[in-house]
Design goal:
Chain B is mostly helical. Chain B is built from eleven helices and no strands. The chains are: A alpha+beta, B mainly alpha, C alpha+beta.
Chain lengths: 181, 298, 560
């Protein structure tokens, strides 16, 4: 019993042979639908911020510097690569790339930042279809957002019209402190 | 010329022990469908460890233990008649010396472990102690069997006792030695003292850097010694007379023994200490029978 | 067989005025509002009816009627019925009878709400801190609504967890917080006499990150599946499915049949790879690395398939409220069939190679024994229970997704040891392969996503159980107002099973500890969920190796 088991165990290996790869030299090919690092195409992006509103990890920040200039920033250090952003993007501006070797000791290597020049809509200030009562609206997504890029903090207040006070306030945003500190 | 033999002994062991360790790792990897590390990885490991910082538990015994262990195994090796050739030192010692020196190596491990006062190290050393007490007799019996056969305690005579004829007692002893081999070299199923997932390398848990490198080197040399001893004691008939050829042939046979060690090691789970004790007890009993038989010249 | 009406009648006849209200939105869910004074009696009555204790849910209702709520949930497995006993205590004096003396498994749940909500339980045998860290200040109960989600109170000084008293003549061997057996931080203080274990105290919840609080205050319904999925690295889909189902039950959303089939397939894929992973880990824990590597080699093909289907090896991100995100195309269907064939063949080879190996028997047979009665008393779940002769399986007893349309066996063994769990898991893997094949055959066409037609009404209760590879996962959901749950409680299978571990360890050898703890396939981080997220603004202090060594030594010497 014991011996036959041992022989079976040694024979077990004969068929598959060696299956591990010489990894860094011989990377494993990724399949077609792989969800690697998301990549933004700034030509297609309309700056709607839908990706930021849907990101479960809150890694996409949107900051309006003025009426016309919107900065979008993707902070890969917290990204869970769920691919929600690519799903919800109305313009397919986001693709999940094949890149998965993302270990780095500098956060900026995996940070992506876009400055978008926004046109002002005469009617509503920001041109997204806000008549639909869908989930995005219910999240309190309004036209202008003021996330703090320096601290990489999502500030969950948004305004319908550009608000300089909010912008200033968001500059002074602070992470929670311990009581008494 | 005698000095040369000693030098060859020590050089062969020092150079080849990590290589054989690498071979074991490679074969284990193949059984597990892995690429495995390069065969010379153990050399890298040793070099890397030697370059690291020594964290010390602060007392003298802790620092001195690894050197003691390495020194004892090296002196054992110096006595060995590698290539069927007794050297200058061989006649100054007998098999009792060898057993003592081997035990000293084990005691050095315990010394280091106990002086670190780590709970896991204590558990590991208690297991190590049990293993030593239970396995050492098998080694002793192997030598005594030879000594009884040739009526001498001299190392070369006792070791080459089977050259004059095998006999049933030697066959029995060979079986026992093979069964105890994994315990001698501290590999599965008898790596109980080190048991990584239970007590985290047991006696060596507090060691790091050069001190740990010495212990690793000690363990590699020890396992090569036990493999070589098997070849010397039980395969004496490959002697050609030419010293260089003999050394090479013996080392080739040691290589084969290592393949066996690797295969057994990779196809067995670790035993518990109480199960191992029962197993060792049976081995001791059989080896006693073998010695008894040899007294009657069987 | 008891119907929901019979249960109602029995309860109202026996306890009359103590029963305030019945609510049964579905044929298989019964919510009972009861008088807090008779919680213990009514719980015992449910157990007598064949109820198996699942978990308790405490919630803060202070803003509405100044009470704290506590819900004990039970599963009547033979009758496909969940019974939830809802009681409420005033927030100023939140004292309740403990049910732990009769149902030992409730011990942790009750301790949890002592920590998190400041409830008090009279008659609790071990009212120690469970979830919060030792230096969390007294009097701040993080799960109460008044406490903000990102509060970081200053640590309490000079506090330490007091271990249970060590039996006479034993030494304490610390296993953890970091130990190769555990893979995750958890601390077992094992009381050892020589090599024999005489007892053990558990201090875990070290990776407690506050997911529940986060999800109750910050994110929205459709983001939670992704967070739920990350509760466990191995059974992610299970948590996502269970959560999604509870939202769907609460809102009355009916998802498409195809989505249910795809969920079933995802769950079974997960079971196949999880059991293979466990087999490997078990091999490693008894020092048999060849089993480890070979089981993982076989597992790899299903991982690669998952990568093709979902875009990732793990944390599939497939399941959201309302359906699934990606469809199984005909090509993928064929490929999955091929993958299953190889796995079945390879697993059979491995099974043949180890099933008769006396060396493995020696390490697993007769190890970690607890009797059927003890396992029942401690409400163990999953393969651990099935290896002790308890015939439970949520997939069969409370069918969800597409499990009502597939045939499968539930392997049950009664040798009560670790070996039985090995065999149960191997057999279950073959059953899973069978289920996936049937599901692939029977899968109807249709959409994979169903959108919400309207808002989810607040304050609806829903309970959903899903059979994870390790046992059943229970999610309890109370819907809230701002498009997020008011209360979401996750019970991972390790939560009840881990409470049974001290019993399994008793009088076994220390060398068997890894495989006994391993036999429940522990998943400490799943168990740990709940309260605070530290986003970390603190400065990083760099210590040199020597400084660290000196500090450690100073602490060690001070301790002596």
């Amino acid at each position: 019993m014991w011996l036959t088991s041992k022989i079976k165990q040694v024979l077990l290996v004969l068929k598959p042979g060696v299956v591990t790869l010489k990894y860094p030299f011989e990377p494993h090919p990724v399949p077609k639908n792989f969800r690697g690092q998301p990549v933004w195409d700034h030509h297609k992006c309309i700056g709607c911020g839908g990706c930021a509103a849907h990101c479960p990890a809150r890694t996409i920040l949107v900051r309006d510097l003025c009426q016309d200039l919107r900065v979008m920033m993707y902070d890969g250090s917290r990204c869970t690569y769920c691919g929600r952003c690519a799903d919800v993007c109305p313009e397919s501006a986001i693709t999940m790339s094949e890149q998965y070797e993302l270990a780095t000791n500098d956060k900026n290597d995996i940070t992506l930042s876009m400055e978008l020049f926004m046109l002002t809509c005469q009617r509503c200030g920001r041109c997204y279809n806000r008549e639909k009562t869908n989930m995005i609206d219910k999240m309190g997504l309004k036209g202008f957002r003021y996330d703090n890029l320096e601290l990489r903090a999502v500030i969950q207040k948004a305004t319908e019209h550009f608000d300089e006070k909010m912008l200033e306030e968001s500059d002074r945003h602070q992470r929670p402190r311990k009581i008494g500190e | 010329m005698d000095i040369l033999y000693i030098a060859v002994n020590i050089a062969a062991f020092l150079v080849l022990a990590p290589l054989f360790e690498g071979v074991v790792r490679k074969i284990t990897a193949r059984v597990q469908s892995r690429q495995g590390p390069p065969v010379i990885q153990p050399y890298y490991d040793l070099l890397k460890l030697l370059g690291k910082q020594n964290l010390s538990a602060g007392n003298f015994a802790f620092t001195v233990a690894p050197m003691l262990a390495l020194a004892s195994i090296l002196s054992v090796i110096a006595f060995m008649p590698l290539g069927y050739q007794a050297n200058y030192l061989t006649r100054y010692a007998d098999v009792i010396t060898i057993i003592y020196l081997l035990t000293l190596g084990g005691v050095a491990c315990l010394l280091g472990a106990l002086s670190s006062k780590n709970t896991y190290a204590l558990m590991g050393s208690s297991r190590e102690m049990i293993t030593m007490i239970m396995v050492e007799p098998v080694l002793a019996m192997t030598f005594i069997l030879g000594a009884v056969k040739v009526k001498s305690l001299g190392i070369d005579e006792a070791v080459f006792s089977t050259a004059g004829g095998y006999g049933w007692s030697a066959v029995l002893m060979l079986a026992v030695y093979l069964m105890a081999l994994q315990a001698f070299v501290g590999r599965q199923p008898f790596d109980i003292a080190e048991a990584e997932v239970e007590i985290l390398e047991g006696p060596f848990i507090e060691y790091s850097g050069p001190n740990y490198a010495l212990f690793r080197y000690y363990l590699m040399l020890k396992q090569m010694f036990y493999a070589a001893l098997f070849v010397m004691v039980f395969i004496p008939f490959a002697k050609t007379g030419a010293y260089g050829v003999d050394v090479l042939v013996q080392l080739a046979m040691v290589f084969v023994v290592f393949i066996v060690i690797a295969l057994i090691g990779s196809t067995n789970p670790r035993l518990r200490i109480d199960q191992a004790q029962k197993y060792y007890a049976v081995l001791i009993a059989i080896s006693l029978v073998a010695v008894g038989l040899s007294v009657y010249g069987v | 067989m008891l119907t929901i009406e019979e249960v109602k009648n029995k309860l109202s006849n026996r306890f009359k005025s103590a029963i305030i209200h019945f609510d049964h939105p579905l044929r298989s869910r019964l919510f009972v509002d009861i008088d807090k004074a008779r919680v213990r009696e009514i719980s015992n009555e449910i157990v007598r009816m064949g109820g198996r204790y699942l978990v308790s849910i405490g919630y803060d209702n202070i803003a509405r009627d100044k009470t704290l709520g506590l819900i004990h949930t039970f599963s009547l497995d033979r009758d496909d019925l969940f019974v939830c006993l809802r009681s409420a205590v005033p927030a100023e004096d939140p004292v309740l009878d403990s049910i732990t003396p009769d149902i030992p498994n409730a011990g942790w749940s009750e301790r949890e709400y002592m920590d998190l909500l400041g409830m008090k339980f009279t008659g609790h045998p071990k009212p120690k801190r469970l979830i919060l860290s030792d230096d969390w200040p007294e009097g701040i109960y993080p799960l109460r609504k008044e406490v903000p989600w990102n509060l970081m109170p200053p640590p309490a000084e000079n506090v330490a967890y007091q271990l249970d008293e060590c039996p006479e003549g034993c030494t304490v061997v610390p296993v953890g917080p970091f130990h190769p057996t555990l893979h995750e931080p958890a601390h077992f203080a094992v009381f050892v006499d020589g090599e024999t274990i005489k007892g053990c105290d558990y201090r875990g919840f070290m990776v407690h990150r506050g997911i529940e609080k986060l999800c109750q205050t910050q994110v929205t319904y459709n983001e939670i599946p992704f967070i739920a999925e990350r509760i466990c690295g191995i059974c992610g889909s299970v948590h996502a499915t269970s959560y999604s189902q509870s939202v769907e039950l609460a809102s009355g959303l009916k998802i498409s049949r195809r989505a249910e089939f795809i969920r079933t397939i995802m769950l079974e894929i997960e079971r196949v790879h999880s059991h293979l992973l466990w087999l490997g880990v078990a091999g490693h824990l008894i020092g048999f690395d060849t089993v480890f590597m070979q089981a993982w080699r076989v597992r790899e093909s299903i991982m690669w398939f998952s990568e093709k289907l979902t875009g990732n090896r793990k944390t599939y991100g497939m399941i959201v409220v309302g359906g699934v995100r990606r469809d199984i195309t005909p090509e993928l269907k064929d490929e999955l069939a091929g993958v299953l064939k190889t796995i079945e063949k390879e697993l059979m080879t491995i099974k043949n190679a180890i099933i008769g190996d006396t060396a493995i028997h020696r390490r697993t047979k007769g190890v970690g024994c607890i009797t059927n009665e003890e396992a029942r008393l401690w409400s163990l779940v999953g393969p651990v229970a099935r290896a002790r002769g308890i015939d439970i399986d949520v997939r069969r007893d409370h069918p969800y997704a597409a499990y009502d349309e597939v045939q499968f066996d539930v392997p049950v063994l009664d040798s009560c040891d670790v070996w039985a769990t090995v065999v149960v898991r191997i057999l279950e893997t073959f059953e899973s392969i069978k289920i996936i094949r049937q599901a692939l055959d029977k899968m109807p066409d249709g959409p994979i996503m169903t959108e919400f037609a309207e808002d989810i009404q607040p304050l609806r209760h829903a309970i959903s159980a899903v059979e994870a590879p390790r046992g059943e996962v229970v999610h309890y959901l109370i819907t809230g107002e701002e498009n997020r749950p008011e209360r979401w409680r996750v019970r991972a299978p390790t939560y009840p099973n881990l409470q049974g571990v001290p019993l399994m360890l008793l009088n076994d050898q220390f060398a068997d500890l890894p495989i006994i703890i391993g036999s429940i396939d522990p998943c400490f981080s799943c168990t740990d969920r709940v309260v605070k997220v530290d986003v970390g603004s603190g400065k990083a202090i760099r210590l040199t190796g020597r400084e660290l060594e000196q500090i450690s030594r100073a602490k060690l010497n001070a301790g002596r």
